[in-house]
Structure prediction request, 936 residues.
Amino acid sequence: MNTLLVAKDVKAYYSSPKGFVRAVDGVTLDINPGDVVGVAGESGCGKSTLSNVLMMNVQPPLKFVGGKLILEGVGDLAVMERQKVKAQVWGKVIALVPQSALNALIPTRKVGAFIKDVLGYHLKLDARKASALAQRRFQELGLPVETLAKYPHQLSGGMRQRVVIAIATLLNPKLLIADEPTSALDVSTQKQVLKMFLHLKTEHIVRAIVFITHDIAILRQIATRIAIMYAGKVMEVGPMEAVIQRPVHPYTCSLIRSVLTPEPEVKERGLSHLAGDPPDLLQPPAGCRFHPRCPQSMAICTQEAPPVVGLGKDHFVSCYLVLEGCQC
Amino acid sequence: MYLNVLRYLARRVVFALAAFLFFIVAIFTLPRLIPGNPVDVLVSRLVMQAQANPELIHAVHRKFMEEFGVGLPLWKQFTRFVAQLLRGDLGTSISMYPRKVSEILALFLPWTVALLIPAILVSWAVGNFLGVLIAWRRGTVLDRVITPILLTINRIPFYWFAMVMLFIFAVYLRFFPIGDTYRWGLSPGLNWNFVVNYLHHYALPFLTLVVISTGGWAIGMRSMTIYELGSDYILFADLLGLPQRRLLAYAFRSACLPQVTELGLNFGLMLGGSLLLELVFNYRGMGSITFQALSTLDYPLIQGIFIVLAAAVIAVNLVVDIVYGLVDPRIKVT
Amino acid sequence: MKKLRNTRLIISTGFFLSVVALGVVGPWVYPVDPFSPSGKRTQPPSWEHPLGTDAHGRDVLAQLMHGIRTSLWIGVIAASIATPIGVLVGGISGYKRGVLDELLMASTNIVLAFPPILLLLLVTVFVPVRTRMVVALLIGLTSWPLLARAVRSQVMSLKERQFTFLARMAGLGDIKIVLVELLPNMMSYVFSSFVWLMSGAMLAEAGLSMIGMGVTADVSLGTMLFWAQMIDAVRRGLFWWFIPPGGILTIMSASLLLLATALDELFNPKLRGR
Ligand SMILES: Nc1ncnc2c1ncn2[C@@H]1O[C@H](COP(=O)(O)OP(=O)(O)O)[C@@H](O)[C@H]1O
Ligand SMILES: [Mg+2]
Prediction:
């Protein structure tokens, strides 16, 4: 099968008065049909930016600086105009559930009315057909049909999140990108949302999912592949089991370790046993971006960024410790 | 669900009544803070102002003493005051003795309403439309040129603009009459002659009021729409591939809601402005009567004007709040 | 985009400072008494009287210069009174929420909805002699509500941010958090609000004067308009008398408002417009 979306050395920077913020700085990622690609990393490492860049939602101050974004059946999105990408791709081929999904519904419009707008525009359905389709889809995804007659403020946070996911996938997009869809929810609601994602995939409503989170534990329940991001770069990417069981990059190790430490503080406040903060993306450190915080940093790490090295099937890592592995 | 609407309405009504009570107490208290006999003081000021004949002054004084309830205990004065108010009795005018204040106001109020309400509604509609248009083209040359101009218009003093308009269009170009409400000798009525004459007099103050107020609405709508266009739900609708015009329509809907509330808050401001404007145009409404009351220090009249205008402001705000409750689903259904 | 905002900043500051210069330096360069007649009545502009004379034969240019001073003085004082009240009421309201918030906002809305001019009317009736200070005080005490509303929503959003959370953890008291943590983050906003309030206060002064309720025994831009209106300058075609004071007032007030919006865009780009 063809790869759905190939991101090749993609770079997108925010221009700010002080210079460029290198939020996505050379990301390479393949998304294949059937994949659930989990993207994990601390806050501020460029995950949300990546989610927007993957569908070419790039607007000032964000600038697409370089790289390719080849979408199956469409071509290189990077060379297309934003309006053209929007018309051909958004909603239909790639759908994004933004990080702010809890506020993503129009406050003055009932859920059903908004769905009618979407279906009316894309599929030219009249109100009755649109409503029938919406009801069917809601039932299928286990959402109460009454929700369609409600305003967003009448729904709980978890319900709003699920409704937004349902709306994003109405047109059966090939790829669904979800930015922190579970982060604002409590554990039991998280489970429902995860179940919904699995359903979307097993029922072939969507063909692949990019699931972004800062909480690597969630990924165990859903991802087939995991990409670890740090300071705008992908540090390690590979099959879920391989990355979780045999991580190579020290940063992957600390992310996994932070999950094993069951203190409630840890998940909120970053990684307790990892000193320091993520770097300022205005002036990222030379060499490996992780070296100032890396417990196993070597002289060479401060000078030259390590190359991306393949380790067996589909497992890549950007670290000089490829051979030794990290000390988990 | 309807319980919520009811609770919302009840709160608004209670708030309106409380606000009105507050003003009543204020207007009752203020003159009574004057040391000595307030009636003496207020009437003596009148005497200094106008050389009226002593008999008249005496009659005025007696009437005023009686209405004021001088000598009675304070609580009794207050209950009398409220009872009179409830009967619609606002006392007797001093400068136009022995005419009743309520009679005078009934004569002048309709003309102000006829000028103010249409002007507010028209400027609100035009301003909001203009604001959305600019917001849609934000950052373009249109925005960069028109927005500062609108901001400047928003700062032109009402009364001065009225003077300039009057000078250009009535005195210099002679397109319109140089003031007044209708030609002398005509009697108001629903006949062709009168209506045409009235509209001819009406046009210039009306346009002045509309032009000046449109700027403020447009600026407000522009920034509200831009704010809404940057919100998360517009982003999501955009990501779903919905067209630009649809996004604008969503933002417009949300941005209109606060503009409805502003309508109430701005009513007071526009009322103040239109009073001054009436003076310049010699338009026979509340502005002229306010000015007369002030320059003759006709206290009962001032008090009556104050109470009527306060009631109007509070009532308009109440109506606006109720309308808001009906159009904003966040209040309607919870 | 950035540059454009700066252009707006520079242009508006330039306009404002020119008017200020006219009021401050003018009387030195053009030492004519604004209070007593210095020529024939209602003279159109001439070399002797660049802006003509009024109905008493007083020089309009001299009055204008003096009027600018009065208006500025009242604008500054009134804004200095209204700013702290607005910040305090809005700050407490936004920080404390609950019943106190409801009460403060209710009273704010009353003052806000009420035509300031009417409120001022009522008071001025009982204050027959009105110095600049009295007028500034009256305007200052009635023009804070919009600011209070804006500050309240600012504080509410600032409060959510982490530094307040950390400060609360560190055991600072509420008042201290408002003063030490929140206020410094709003300084630029408070400053632009001051500018914006000043712009409104000068207009309010003129409005009061226009119905004869402004400063007594002094010349301001508003009293000039008042006298012009009283003597029917418009219908008599004495344009040199009533056009300059309103024009100057518009320039001052508009340049201050433009300045305030430019400052807001510069320092608080995410701010919702007022
Ligand atoms: N509009 C912007 N202008 C400048 N920098 C930005 C902007 N938005 C985000 N950034 C910066 O880009 C980096 C990545 O942000 P983001 O993609 O939101 O990270 P994440 O989703 O992983 O938390 C951060 O350092 C953030 O400060
Ligand atoms: Mg994010």
Summary: Chain C is about 75% helix and 0% strand.
